[in-house]
DNA sequence: CAGGTCAAGTGGTCTGACCAGTGGGTCGCC
DNA sequence: GGCGACCCACTGGTCAGACCACTTGACCTG
């Protein structure tokens, strides 16, 4: 195992994670009040500003309802949380939540082709060359992890070409969730990124400028791994 | 204009918005350093904890890179921001960014049918009744704004039925962005929510359990308003 | 019993201090 | 003169304690 940067978790980070854990794991439940900042500070053995910072960060992501003068209450994260909570929901209690994993694959399969279609409509003449270059790097790579990185770069360029702020922001969040786990997931996704041919077809389709062709080609890239992992997950659930 | 709750912006909120403005409007640019916390506190006339809280909140959304001992630098929000930044990007400099508005409509058109298809696959027998109930409320409503609320409730139930965490989280972010502007956008979207018939067809399609039918029906609900607003935006851009 | 009053508890903010990590400049050695 | 180790100034990280602003509910008053 290669050397890794030591993780330097700040005190507010720690508090944030702990409180988030209470909320996500249901120990506190939507609508229930949180202990006061002073009390939390005392219990956790940290200063009040540290607690405050953590709670404010949670409030920013709509996980808490902080009211001046009143008690801070927990909101229903399933109804209010954004995509940034995805990593935390994917691994709940040390285990991978298969339902969440499934939803990621399904969403990929819905959004990916849509983005590819937009990219086909809007991608300029230079796009196909850029994509091809990335694919060449992908094809030349010998390492699973590096292939993942290249595939991610490929999709990044497709999203750029789609020229859609919403899809760009979605992609940013999903990438932020995916990258930390990239090494762990590389073997699982190896099948997909090994199909350089399918990627080349997709590149040509996007370059052709026809949205429907691009949509179909993207689905052809994403479908196989989606299906096989999905059925693996189903088998896992039953065991 | 009806009475509204007075907005009580906290000091860190104010700082957050100001710094965010500098970043989003490009006054500081990706990679450039931010003034030190002490300096910012001095310039803005607030305490350092207030500045600190604002900066930490921005760091949490991947907009800043804060390093202990080093200088805090601005990250490229287009590459790292999540969906929560959408409202801020939609109205830049007091004006609506038509490109962003366009991307919202396009994303709706891609994701909506996908969600509907999943809902058709997974929705239980009670789903159709629940959706019909919401549609009855929508049909009975006389107010544009209230119709928007009902339509939102309808899609909320569809997303629930799709049983997909990723789409749920996406929907949460989009709803959080949409709701504050709901009253302003109601006239624009009135055409869509007026088509109760299309919604009923969609409900039946979802109830039938056939994903493809549901997908097509959802597109039929979303397409007309999407097309008309899109062309209005194009006209706006050219003027 | 309705109304206003008030006190306790909560979050909001500030001050000032000190700890901890970074980076550039400086000084001394080769 | 070149180069390395050291040091210090500056950055963010954390804390303690105080006070302000707001909400709530108990209490008191009419």
Automatic annotation (TrEMBL), chains A, B:
Looking at the keywords, is Iron present?
Answer: no
Matches recorded under InterPro entries? GntR_C, TF_FadR/GntR_C, Tscrpt_reg_HTH_GntR, WH-like_DNA-bd_sf, WH_DNA-bd_sf
Going by the UniProt record, its keywords in alphabetical order are: DNA-binding, Transcription, Transcription regulation
The superkingdom of the source organism is Bacteria
Which PANTHER family does the record cross-reference, listed alphabetically?
GLUCONATE OPERON TRANSCRIPTIONAL REPRESSOR, TRANSCRIPTIONAL REGULATOR, GNTR FAMILY
Stretches assigned to the HTH gntR-type domain: 9-77
A Pfam family per the record? GntR
Q: Which organism is it from?
A: Nocardioides mangrovi
Against SUPFAM superfamilies, the record matches this protein to:
GntR ligand-binding domain-like (SSF48008), Winged helix' DNA-binding domain (SSF46785)
The secretion signal range is none
Gene3D superfamilies per the UniProt record, alphabetical: GntR ligand-binding domain-like, Winged helix-like DNA-binding domain superfamily/Winged helix DNA-binding domain
Name by which UniProt lists this protein: GntR family transcriptional regulator
